[in-house]
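Workshop exercise sheet. Pairs work together: one partner reads the sequence aloud, the other fills in the structure field after running the prediction. Swap roles for the next sheet.
Pair: D.N. / O.F.
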Amino acid sequence: MSEVSLQEGDLNMQDLELLHHFATETCSTTSNQKESHQIWRVTVPKEAFVHDFLMRGLLATSALHLSHLRPNDAEYYRHVAHAHQDKALSSFQAIMPNISQANCHASFAFSSLIVVYAFASPRSARSLAFTDQTQESAEWLPLIRGVNSILQTVWPYVENGPLRGLLQPGMHQALETRLPKVINSQLNQLVELCQRSNRGEDAVAAYKLAAQALRNCYAKIFTRSSVECEIATAFTWPVAVPEEFIRLLNMRTPEALVILAHYCVVLHHLDDYWWLRGWAAHLVHNIYAEIDEPWRVWIQWPSDVIDRNEKCLMWRPMTPEAILDQNLRSAQSN
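Structure field:
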């Protein structure tokens, strides 16, 4: 048996601290589901020992978490996070054209951490979720869509692999739910706004699809059962909107920004997560500054909801009969 020679200083105590923090603290901040906490605590680090990009992404996220928890050392931990994330992204980009059964689980986990990292990173003053005018970092909306793209290409592997507990099948199915009158009225007004747009048929269709996806997202949150992940539920909207709507957002059309402001009501429900805290208010404030005065009346409702710290889509427990009825409708639609 060959001898192993250990040199003084071989241990990187900084990285061990970050790994320990991830496995004891950060892992339980990625969702509200205990099953997923265990996967992030045990299974993901196990995958990370095989895939360098995932380990560095894990350490980067842990460092950002510590920067929030230890404000006196925030600059130091942000620097550490940035260094790890840069190397992680470089390695990940090299394997992206060749995602396979061997690396798909690590790729899925890392792409999910990229979203957390993007939300948790310091916000630029005028960031609007889809493009950062300072070019300092990618924004989170296209990143969420990117996670879904990666997942769709390797779904059969992930669905039957060690990270299957992070998946939530059926999240994008339409749901017929009677929403409270005030919310339903706001969504109906959004549709009317879309129909009045003078930007052409393609734009009107994109706006209406985005508004419908938002209604579905509201309904899923409003009726979410205790076994459903609220993060996954909230992120159905960025995935469901058509590419044309993303193009209109990039153009900063007022209709697209108004719809995005109404999505902030959803984000506000996630304000208890350290990496999402303050994003809803930040976005609405920037949208208000971006649109002209006549359009600002259209974002008054989401602005008021967020200013009052109102959780108007707060989860209502579904009765067993309601769950059975929903499952039957879903089965019939398939």
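Discussion prompt: Confidence is low (pLDDT under 50) at residues 132-138, 315-320. What would you look at next?
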